[in-house]
UniProtKB/TrEMBL annotation:
It catalyses: [protein]-L-glutamate 5-O-methyl ester + H2O = L-glutamyl-[protein] + methanol + H(+). GO terms for biological process: chemotaxis. Transmembrane segments: none annotated. Residues 296-323 form a coiled coil. Keywords: Chemotaxis, Coiled coil, Hydrolase. Signal peptide: none annotated. Residues 1-188 form the CheB-type methylesterase domain. This is protein-glutamate methylesterase. GO terms for molecular function: phosphorelay response regulator activity; protein-glutamate methylesterase activity. Gene3D superfamilies: Methylesterase CheB, C-terminal domain. It comes from Ramlibacter tataouinensis (strain ATCC BAA-407 / DSM 14655 / LMG 21543 / TTB310). InterPro entries: CheB_C, Chemotax_prot-Glu_Me-esterase, Sig_transdc_resp-reg_Me-estase.
Amino acid sequence: MTSAPVVVIGASFGGVNALLELAAALPPDFPAIVGVVLHVGSRASILPQLLSRRGPHPAVHPKDGEPPRPGVLYVAPPDHHLLLTPQAVRLNRGPRENYARPAIDPLFRSAALGWRERAIGVILTGDLDDGTAGLAAIKRCGGMAVVQDPQEAVGPSMPASALAHVQVDHCVRLAQLAPLLAKLVGQPARSPATVPQDLQREQALFEGNDPMDQLAHLGEPSLLTCPDCGGGLVELKGSQPLRYRCHTGHGFTARSLEAAQQEQADHALWSSLRSLQERRLLLLRLATVAEATGDVAQAQAGRRQAERLREQAEQLSRMIESADA
């Protein structure tokens, strides 16, 4: 088990350049374990190679179960959550959080539970609000919260959300971040904190341990359904920002849930438009066949129905266009 402190960093839109600048500025003797999540989805990523070339510390996509080492930047690989414990680095293809895998909140939550007052969370540039709940978890366990100044961030939404919902210890420009982190990890740890039971339950739910029982203690059923699996969503009690979870472990802030619902609605509307257009084409083809066989009445009925479908498709197309405006 390591006794080194941990620094966990989350970034999204604009995050590659921010991470490269931070990695280049970290001192060679930086004594902390570092975990990094960039929203890359399932796409191939060469972020570890880029970070290793830019700074004095090696960056890797870790192997599941390897012991964490100070001075190494552990980067979440594509389509895997990164979890850190003092005993081991864990990779997890569990449920998506905030419609993302890798997501920032699971990494931050694992650091909060494993390191408590020796954890430092850092939110960099990005859209929406992944990482805010995880940063709040670090604070509740006695750790420190650091946020990039939203005014200089390419994506100001993530750092702005953290500032709005978390008692942040430091809000700094990117150029000030590495010296600040070097100072913070060298300071004596704060007084030990007690881990809140709801965080332990939420992590157990995420890891699939007795999910129905855990969820019953975490919140109240809502009228909403999970965009990932269709299960009922529970609204978590006392969460800032407002969050939801289903019994399979998918988790959403209200903002990420709304974005997921918008994506689903958009997909459904375009699918409906395609269905109307294809049915119209089939009816016109059937009308042509009916004409060829002398069934004029059937051909006329098919063409009238096809015309109604054309009008419906045009109305739906206009509705989609107005919704996107």
